[in-house]
């Protein structure tokens, strides 16, 4: 499971919207698992405040129906979960969802499942917490890499900048670097630096989202994180 989602489960605090990118089956299974936790209900198909639908194209009429459902008061407790799996969005439907995601209805959580973040306009993408499920299960670290990332987290900003200097022009390597750093931080959440590690995970995820936008540079993201992540 993605480190950030593990952190949210452990804290029982969930964002209003997630963008699940990569393997569609893995994203679907993960979204359903989190939905059960949020709603505290195993048989989702019988829950009146759960909605799941697959689309080839998520259009404006689909968006209007979804927004209407989201605006209704929950029938059971105080939570509602919407899972949308689609191959693409129309510009009109993406824009229609913007306001709902900028000012979400209380207790409402969205999971948008796509194969690539590129199918969503940047403004909508920026309103969602990105969960990258591409080869997530393959992220494993040997002792040498764990030691490197542990040292990176303890280092002063100038040392961290030196450590990421070779990644500043390679977006894909920057994403891999942050994926591996998340693995180490997740382990630290079980130790005495749990609070700092959780803050670092959230900051990394927020900034890693930028790497999926063509207008953002790996240099900008990595330098920001090197300078701002708490030492832990």
Polypeptide structure, described:
The chain has 232 residues and is an alpha/beta fold. The protein has 2 domains: 3-137, P-loop containing nucleotide triphosphate hydrolases (Rossmann fold, 3-Layer(aba) Sandwich), CATH 3.40.50.300; 139-228. The protein has 10 helices and 5 strands; from the N terminus they run αβαβαβαβαβααααα. The chain has a 5-stranded parallel β-sheet with strand order 2-3-4-1-5, sandwiched between helices. α8 runs antiparallel to α9. The longest helix is centred in the last third of the chain and has 18 residues, at 171-188. The chain is globular and about 50 Å long.
Mean pLDDT, as a whole number? 88
Strand content: 15-25%
Count of discrete alpha- or pi-helical segments spanning 4 or more residues: 10
Q: Which sequence of SSEs, written as H and E, runs from N to C?
A: HEHEHEHEHEHHHHH
Which spans of ≥5 residues are poorly predicted at pLDDT below 50? none
Count of discrete domains: 2
CATH architecture designation of the largest domain:
3-Layer(aba) Sandwich
* CA-based gyration radius: 18 Å
CATH third-level topology of the largest domain: Rossmann fold
């Amino acid at each position: 499971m993605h480190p950030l989602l593990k952190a949210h489960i452990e804290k029982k605090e969930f964002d209003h919207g997630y963008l699940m990118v990569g393997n569609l089956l893995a994203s679907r299974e993960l979204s359903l698992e989190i939905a059960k936790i949020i709603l505290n209900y195993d048989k989702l198909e019988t829950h009146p405040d759960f909605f799941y639908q697959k689309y080839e194209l998520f259009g404006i009429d689909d968006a209007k129906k979804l927004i209407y459902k989201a605006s209704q008061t929950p029938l059971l407790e105080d939570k509602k979960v919407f899972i949308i799996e689609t191959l693409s969005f129309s510009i009109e439907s993406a824009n229609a969802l913007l306001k709902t995601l900028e000012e979400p209805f209380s207790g409402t959580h969205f999971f948008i499942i796509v194969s690539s973040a590129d199918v969503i306009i940047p403004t909508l993408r920026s309103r969602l917490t990105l969960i990258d499920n591409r080869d997530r299960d393959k992220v494993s670290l040997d002792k040498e890499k764990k030691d490197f990332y542990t040292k990176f987290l303890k280092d002063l900003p100038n040392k961290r900048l030196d450590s990421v200097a070779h990644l500043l022009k390679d977006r894909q390597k920057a994403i891999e670097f942050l994926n591996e750093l998340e693995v180490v931080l997740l382990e630290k959440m079980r130790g005495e630096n749990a609070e700092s590690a959780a803050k670092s995970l959230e900051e990394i995820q927020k900034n890693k989202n930028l790497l999926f936008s063509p207008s953002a540079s790996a240099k900008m993201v990595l330098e920001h994180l090197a300078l701002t992540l708490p030492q832990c």
